[in-house]
Amino acid sequence: MSAPVAGEESPLALICGSGSLPLAVADSVAARGRRVLLFPLRGIAAPQDYAGRAPIWLQLAKFGTFIRAARAAGCRDLVLIGSLVRPSFWQLRFDLTTLRMLPGIAASFRGGDDHLLSGVARLIEGEGFRLLGAHEVAPEILVPKGVLGRVQPTPQDETDAALGFRYLHATGMFDVGQAVVVASNRVLAVEAAEGTDQMLVRVAELRRTGRLAAGEGRGVLVKCPKPTQDRRFDLPSIGPQTIKGVASAGLAGVAVAAGETIAAQSARLVEIADRENVFVAGLASGLQR
Amino acid sequence: MSAPVAGEESPLALICGSGSLPLAVADSVAARGRRVLLFPLRGIAAPQDYAGRAPIWLQLAKFGTFIRAARAAGCRDLVLIGSLVRPSFWQLRFDLTTLRMLPGIAASFRGGDDHLLSGVARLIEGEGFRLLGAHEVAPEILVPKGVLGRVQPTPQDETDAALGFRYLHATGMFDVGQAVVVASNRVLAVEAAEGTDQMLVRVAELRRTGRLAAGEGRGVLVKCPKPTQDRRFDLPSIGPQTIKGVASAGLAGVAVAAGETIAAQSARLVEIADRENVFVAGLASGLQR
Fold it and tell me: Are B187 and A192 inside 8 Å of each other by CB?
């Protein structure tokens, strides 16, 4: 690996959590002609996804490996992308570089996700890297304003979406989650530590056991970022799996904040949405910033 | 059944949902010397609990039975108590009295629980009954200020409880739920349509699968009424089952709004809390009303 010559764009370092989003971003960036170095997280990213892509596997709490490899390759820009189950602080095994950074990391482990992530961001920038959002290097991954597939939301769906956006804005300062399920003017489920997929499983279960009064096919998954969200990481995202969960929960569709939500594998996502007869809409979330 | 003579307190009509709370309230009221008529809801209250207590079984959507029996017995005051899974409007089979009230009932079925319950309350009062809160006829069921058992909350537990109260106050206007789980300054779970017990099962699952960073025994179940809550029904409640759920989820204890939360079977509840080493505290929720 050699440092880039002057005038050439530096390679992008992509630290990859789980799911299909990291590779979609990598392919988008590569298609724009920029070299990408993949740093999947061991135990989190799936090894088979990275076969033949020359990954440099990282362990959580071993920043030293990353810093040496990224510097040697001349990387200056860094993107964190994919799902990361919040690790238990006491299960981590630290390397020396990380131990040096430990007081800052320990402080980041108290409080919500924003707190954890912004703490990690400061540490990375303290080492001379620039942290970018995935949408800054691959803007086409953002959901635009409008309906993505064939199915249109009804006026009631739009009313439910607006209620969901209001709820998420009102609770954003608590740094809890980025998704709710709303049906017929009622918030049925609120996402917290369990994540969106598990929340959808819960709604499917409530419906199956007859605990929901809403008719079949009604209700909306609503996702938008917290008002305080640092847009460089953890923007809300949807993917094919989300659409399958929405269909299993008997919901009418998914409404996300346009321009502030990432769609992984959007062609496949739309194909499944059309087949399952659910809508996917990017809407103005109404948030004043 | 005969109407009470002048000057005698009228018998209390108790419409009973599921759980142990209705019978606890009935016994408290009877111990004060007031006659109680039990109207358990068929398919919701457990038949064996009412054996030997001369229950008058009601069917949902058949208000006529209730109105005739309650009037014949001279009841003027009515309490609704116990859990009621929100029924599907279309699964109900209405009697004639109820059909007459239907436009009001249908309107009540849209929106959150407050909306449903306050609609039902108006309908009952329109028939000449006075709807009371369970705590008005049996004030000893409310959790007082202070620690109920042997185990004391730590300062961190109190900080977590305060965060939970703030979250519940901020979201009260959305009429979603009355409980959250908070651990180490992070809201881990938010109750909505699934109810408290299911939320605790979810937290236990998150802990078992290693998705929670908080150490064993940390975290608090926090319950308090919505700021807009009509205190005549659906005050938050805890019971022996709640304490078992708290222990299974590995939480340190439960903090409730003192004077605004009902404890079912409080002696048994405290016994289990002491055995499971979890605290039960009535705290000032900090809400300005």
Answer: yes
